[in-house]
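Let us work through a complete example step by step.
Step 1: write down the sequence.
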Amino acid sequence: MKTDFQTILENNSIEVSAPCRVDMGGTLDINTFNYPFRHLNPCTFNIAIGLRTYIRLEPYTQGIVKVSSRGFDSAEFSPEQAPFNHPLGLMFAIAAYFRADGVHIIIDSSSPPRSALGGSSAAAVALVAAFKALIDHEAVVKEQENEFRQEIAILAHALEASVAGVPCGFQDQLAAVFGGVNTWFWTGQPVLPLYKRLIVISDSDYQDLEARLLLAYCGIPHASKDINSRWVRQFVSGQYRDYWKKIIQATNLFGHAVKEWDLQTAAKQMNLETDLRREMTPDVLDDMGKQLVKLAVQANCGARFTGAGGGGCIWALGEPNHIKKLKINWKNLLSEIETAALLEMKIDNRGLRFGKY
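Step 2: predict the structure and record it as tokens.
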């Protein structure tokens, strides 16, 4: 039986949020890469950060789904006519999966639009959880159960992959539901478990790690499809396979070094991974990104673009005294572009959450 979301929402408001992330070893979470290289133990490291994406559902006109999000023009369609290739198409695709109408989906993100922090995947995770909660009130009770979070992540990823037009990774959804500082090892198999989670830093050490992190928005939105699709085309045609082997090794060494608080080794591997990607796709860093990375290397820090790069954000890791100096230099450089800025780099340990955060 079809759920009457409009009537439910007239009596029960719902708000769900999930965090964005910074990462290293992205792309390896795409099966195109981790299936053939599963013997090399491919992994992706990420940190869930306090720049959360919020979803609120409100009642709307029967037979219509409306989506509003900062940085995008609002759009509304009937479920049968909603285009999934629209800038907000993923939200319409999720609504279609749940046969939802009479709903206004309101997205409020703490991160800049298209900043390569995984905001769209965080929104998808939160929206899937919101619809599940409207159908099953027990969903809110299950919020902290690992099995429930995994189910949300898998469904959100599957829906995103179904409409993206390019292969999609899985790390964004996992960071969004679980939070924390993790290395995700990809099993390279089509059945559960799809990944193995290694918690790299415990909650009690978050403040110490935050003193060693820096995050900058370059001021220019990114388009992850462009660079990701090139990496995929290169890989399936047999190009740069040795580069990807080195990226796998660098990401493994990086995660281990962070866990051991060996930041010198971590920074070295971080910069190596960035250099390898730049050789394959020089435009993975825009002009501002190149300057930010150069300043980080000069300050004895590691630096990497977030997501697939090509605009968006750069994050850095280093000893506190190096990060303090780098922060001053980054701030001065970013002041040259009105839309560029340093962003708060707080680690989020909560992941997916129902209600106001």
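Step 3: interpret the result. The radius of gyration is 20 Å.
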